[in-house]
Amino acid sequence: MTSGGHVQDLFSDPIEARLIEQKSAGTWLLKSWLAKDRASISVQLQAILQVSPLRRFKTPNGYSMSVGSSNCGAWGWISDQKGYRYSAVDPLTQRPWPAMPEAWQHLATEAAELVGFQHFIPDSCLINCYEVGDKMGLHQDKDEEIFEHPIVSVSLGLPIIFMLGGLTRSQAYQKILLEDSDVLIWGGVDRLKYHGVQSLRKGLHPIFGSKRYNLTFRKAK
Ligand SMILES: O=C(O)CCC(=O)C(=O)O
Ligand SMILES: [Fe+2]
Question: Boundaries of each Fe2OG dioxygenase domain copy (predicted)?
């Protein structure tokens, strides 16, 4: 192998770009963390969506959410006229949500551990699919029974700007670029921070096409 080829190999290996950035007292960004897993995650994701397809949940005031959503794991986050909550049954299929792949649970547990959150065993994975123009306004994740565990959020496909705000809606937010294979973790003093994402911009990703998927791992119950 020529030395040029060797350098090329090193720098084209996405694993080389793995990096941990602390964004706030209780928030960490793991850059390119899942690059080596994304092809298998994509296959597992499509299998899950065959069983429990993406759908746009209705908010309690009757609007459709901008993103398409589904779940896997024991508990799925849902929304309808009755409010936001966790359900063991997919309201679309009237069957339990697909099981959370073991590899997914492990990656979420390991990522949390890496930044100091022990014993995080998620029982819920919300799947969101963003198409061009889709966004999510500032909100808190507060439908879980306890807030001792962090949120582990995996980004796949096209990049998006994540907004990390404060503990009140009116506080200024920092912008965090989330790219394919990044993992964002927030917990502890940041667990109830307002957050959201800005509109997805047009693009084409080699595996995920014109979309961005987000997997949000939580301990719901
Ligand atoms: O798509 C994201 O990165 C954030 C999603 C989110 O905050 C949620 O589903 O509660
Ligand atoms: Fe959220």
Answer: 121-221
In tens, the pLDDT along 81-93 reads 999 999 999 999 9
| Coil, helix or strand at residue 214 | strand
Is 190 a member of any domain?
Answer: yes
Whether 11 is covered by a domain: the verdict is: no
| Residue 204 CA to ligand 2 centre (angstroms) | 25
Whole-model pTM: value is: 0.93
pLDDT digits (tens, 9 = 90+) for 151-179: 999 999 999 999 999 999 999 999 999 99
Does residue 150 fall inside a structural domain?
yes
DSSP codes of every residue in 121-164: --SEEEEEEE-TT--EEEE----SS-SSS-EEEEEEES-EEEEE
Query: Could you list which residues have their CB under 5 Å from ion ligand 2?
Result: 141
195 is in an annotated binding site: yes
Rounded alpha-carbon distances, angstroms, from residue 159 to 10, 83, 102, 130, 162? 24, 30, 26, 10, 9
Number of domains within the chain: 1
Rounded distance, CA 28 to CA 41, Å? 22
- Alpha-carbon distance of 172 to 163, in angstroms, equals 9
